Amino acid sequence: MPLPLIKAKARLILAHGAGAPCDSLFMNMLALALAHYQIEVQRFNFPYMQRSIELGSKRPPDKMAVLQQHFMVQINQADSSLPLFIGGKSMGGRVASMLNLLDVPQVKAVFAFGYPFHPPGKSQWRTAHFDTLPLPLHIVQGERDPFGKRAELAELNWPQVKVHWLTAADHDFKPTKASGLNQQQLIADAAAYCSGKIDEILLAGARN
């Protein structure tokens, strides 16, 4: 479901997280914030989520290969009139980052909003593919996200991975009351960061 806007500079195919559909409150807020920066957002539901909606009951995500296959369908069907970027919330961002390893020359970079570096409280890291990414992966992460906190990542780095930290935010970019911030402000921060990186990539491409 693309969000229409005037004079878009880029298209971002945005996948949802494991437990909420593409039109969740978070996804709606993020899509609107990105549209403010002339980024056309195209959202979709993975098949398991669509079945969950139709049946009215929760279903677990499909296997990674199935999720990747469906994401690739979205990429292959995308209009080529705009520069293409992909990304997602949590699990959706992880799927997009793994597509980065495939032959998808039309995609210029990947954006993950709240990357699930590991399950909360566990040390099963989901970063094995980070060392071989051929394209940039930009991650927007809450400082206190239980799926990957700032302190846990302080000593880690990968060639193509950049992390932008959101002050006092959790996995859904909700901050602590003491921070004086709100979720909408942090989502706007995430969108501004995404827009800035897209501008850098497009400018570099224009120079080449």
Question: What key phrases describe this protein's structure?
Answer:
alpha/beta; 208 residues; 6 strands; Rossmann fold
Kindly describe this structure.
The protein is of the alpha/beta class and 208 residues long. The chain has a single domain, classed as Alpha/Beta hydrolase fold, catalytic domain (Rossmann fold, 3-Layer(aba) Sandwich), CATH 3.40.50. It is 35% helix and 18% strand. The protein has a six-stranded parallel beta sheet with strand order 2-1-3-4-5-6, sandwiched between helices. It is globular, with a radius of gyration of 16 Å. The mean pLDDT is 94.
What is this structure's SSE topology?
Elements: E1 10-15, H1 25-35, E2 39-44, H2 47-55, H3 64-77, E3 84-89, H4 91-99, E4 107-113, E5 137-142, H5 150-153, E6 161-166, H6 183-207
Parallel strand pairs: 1-2, 1-3, 3-4, 4-5, 5-6
Helix pairs in contact: 1-6, 3-4
The major β-sheet equals:
6 strands, parallel
Order of helices and strands: EHEHHEHEEHEH
- Main structural class: alpha/beta
- Per DSSP, what share of the residues sits in E-state strands of 2 or more residues? 15-25%
Question: In whole angstroms, how far apart are the ends?
Answer: 33 Å
- How many whole angstroms does the radius of gyration measure? 16 Å
Number of helices: 6
CATH class reads Alpha Beta
Counted beta strands? 6
Adjacency order of strands in the biggest sheet: 2-1-3-4-5-6
General shape: globular
Q: What are the low-pLDDT stretches, counting only 5+ consecutive residues below 50?
A: none
Q: CATH superfamily name?
A: Alpha/Beta hydrolase fold, catalytic domain
Average pLDDT score: 94
In the CATH scheme, what's the topology name? Rossmann fold
Annotated CATH architecture? 3-Layer(aba) Sandwich
DSSP helix fraction: 25-40%
Instruction: Count structural domains.
Output: 1
